[in-house]
Structures are given as C-alpha cells and as structure tokens.
Design goal:
18 strands; mainly beta; 4% helix; six-stranded antiparallel sheet; eight-stranded antiparallel sheet; flat
C-alpha cells in the first residue's frame, strides 16, 4: 500500500495487485466533506486479459432503525447465498418503516442510493447493486454498499442472475463513491 497525496482533510492510497494472470491498480481516496466522510474506491485492469472484480465498503455504524431502498433479498445461510434473489417479505422490507434486524441480509433491487442506520446516512454513486446489512454486534450495524452479492464469484459460477460480478477488460475501471454523514434520526412511520 502506498500513501499518495494527503492533506489535513484528504488522503489517497494506492495498491497494485499482480496475481497472474491478473493485474489491478487499486485506488482509494478518503476526504472529509460537509459533516461527513467521502470514500472513493476504484480498480483498473492493468493486465492483458479480463479480470472479475467487485467493490464495496463495510462501515460499522451505531445502530438505530435501519432503512435500505431494496425490493429483493438473497436467501443466505451463514452469510452465503443459497439461492437466487427473491422479493423481500414484510419482515425483511426496510424501504419505508425501518427495522431493527438481528442477522446478516444481502439486499438488492435497489430503488435509490441512500441507506440509514439511525441518524447516520450512507449514500453512494456508481454501480452499487447490493447493500449488505449485518447486525451481529449489539448496538452496531454494518451497512455495506457493494457492487455484488456475498460470495459473488461462486454465485456467478452457479449462474444465478444479478450477482453483480463485473468482468473488466484490459484498461477498464470500476469505481464507486460512498459518503457517510450524521443527521437527526427521523421518527418511524406508524405501522
């Protein structure tokens, strides 16, 4: 890992991965922005052949009511998908009312680019197609915007649609931006 340009409110990190037959140039930039943090992450195929890639962030946040704009979920066992994505049930739906889950869930079918954990807002740009939610530690939640399902490379081999694995041709780049900021927690909607 190489630390590139840095200031009091910004740092750039880079890492070259040379694992034949694949070569990737990875870059991460962390910036303090308007009451939060912005994280930019990219991977560029520097090799001569195609390479499968997935990107994401896994921030731990103080847990409150969770909201994720997703209409589908992957059935999982020990965090690994055991079948294709399916529509969320009423108990799994985090689109409007929010919930206090106690497990790992991998959501997809995103109709927006903002999730919430209590008074913490996580939003993203780029080809994020999944949000993994893990609440295995009391008082905390991991709200993870990612480009792929858990165990995506094996899910792709199984042929299940919507896995999110991107295959980059030489010179192609995959990039996402994630921002995390604090804002007052809204009162839950009446049920």
């Amino acid at each position: 890992m190489v630390v590139g340009a840095s200031t009091g409110d910004r740092a750039e990190l880079s890492l070259g991965l040379d694992h034949p037959p694949w070569r990737l140039a990875c870059r991460q930039e962390l910036s303090v922005v308007d009451g939060g943090i912005q994280m930019d992450l990219s991977a560029r195929n520097e090799g001569s052949g195609a390479v499968p890639v997935g990107l994401g962030y896994h921030p731990w946040l103080p847990c409150g009511r969770l909201q994720v704009p997703a209409s589908a979920i992957w059935p999982v066992q020990r965090c690994i998908p055991i079948g294709p994505a399916r529509p969320v049930t009423a108990d799994e739906d985090l689109r409007s009312r929010g919930s206090r889950l106690s497990s790992t869930r991998c959501y997809t079918g995103l109709a927006g680019s903002t999730a919430r954990a209590g008074g913490v807002v996580v939003d993203w740009e780029g080809p994020v197609t999944h949000v993994v939610v893990f609440t295995g530690q009391p008082g905390w939640a991991c709200v993870e915007p990612v480009t792929h399902v858990n165990d995506a490379f094996n899910v792709a081999v199984k042929g299940w649609p919507g896995h999110g694995v991107r295959v980059l041709v030489p010179g192609e780049e995959l990039a996402i931006t994630v921002r995390i900021r604090q804002e007052p927690e809204a009162e839950p909607e009446p049920e």
